[in-house]
Specification:
- There is one protein chain.
- By secondary structure, this protein is mainly alpha-helical.
- The protein has a single domain (38-170), classed as Cytochrome c-like domain (Cytochrome Bc1 Complex, Chain D, domain 2), CATH 1.10.760.10.
- 41% of the residues lie in helices and 3% in strands.
- It is built from seven helices and two strands.
- The protein has helices at 2-25, 38-44, 62-72, 74-77, 105-108, 113-122, 133-146, and strands at 59-61, 155-157.
- It has a two-stranded antiparallel ribbon with strand order 1-2.
- The longest helix is centred in the first third of the chain and has 24 residues, at 2-25.
- The radius of gyration is 25 Å and the shape is elongated.
- The model has no long low-confidence stretch (mean pLDDT 89).
- Bound molecules: heme C.
- Residues 72-73, 75-77, 86-87, 89, 103-105, 118-119, 123-126, 139 line the site of heme C.
């Protein structure tokens, strides 16, 4: 008797699976969501690659960056990027391979371009997306300056940011050597 039960159960499962597969591959779809316009897609499609691909127009200076940093970032990241409530953004250079590595933007990050990307997508912590591109270039310039990576006169933009070499870049290994 139980063998018949098993056969019936198995057949039933096949039927269910077949139904699910035809739902996925057939014409039926759940009709959820609405298509996004190109403008809307652009709001989310803003990845910046290590080589600077995707960087927007705009520019910013170290001086402006300091003012903006003091207003929007200092409360959490400390004066001059050190000793804040949250992670330090400056210092720690040369400590990465030692017993007490201190990872900051300056000591650890491999590419200058991802600083812009990170700030734009994630900071200020409580209101990401609130800064303009010019403001982000300025704050990026200030953070690079307090790490002694650029001098105080540099005006950062999409052309010169990718050329800025980060101190720890040599210690990262490209995962796809054939593409490099
Ligand atoms: C309310 C507190 C707060 C404010 C304000 C804030 N941050 Fe942050 N920030 C954080 C926290 C928390 C993290 C760690 C986030 C994580 O690891 O997910 C962080 C991480 C970062 C990092 C990555 C550090 C690393 O080495 O991984 C950068 C860069 C950064 N913030 C820049 C900024 C800048 C620039 C501003 C101002 C525009 C800013 N933050 C404002 C809380 C804040």
């Amino acid at each position: 008797m139980s063998i018949y039960k098993n056969i019936i159960c198995t057949l039933f499962l096949f039927l269910l699976a077949g139904h699910a597969i035809s739902d996925i591959f057939g014409k039926k779809n759940p009709n959820l969501g609405v298509p996004l316009s190109n403008e809307e897609v652009k709001k989310y499609d803003f990845v910046i690659m290590p080589d600077g691909q995707g960087l927007p127009d705009g520019q910013g200076s170290v001086d402006e960056g300091k003012n903006l940093y003091d207003i929007h970032c200092m409360a959490c990241h400390g004066m001059g990027g050190v000793k804040g409530l949250n992670g330090d953004l400056a210092g720690g250079h040369g400590t990465i391979s030692g017993p007490f590595p201190k990872k900051t933007v300056g000591s650890y990050w491999p590419y200058s371009t991802i600083l812009f990307d990170y700030i734009r997508r994630a900071m200020p912590y409580q209101s990401p997306g609130s800064l303009s591109n010019d403001e982000i270039y300025s704050i990026s310039a200030y953070i690079l300056f307090i790490n002694n990576i650029i001098d105080s006169e540099m005006i950062l933009n999409k052309t010169n940011l990718p050329g800025i070499k980060m101190p720890n870049s040599e210690n990262f290994i490209w995962a796809f050597p054939e593409d490099s």
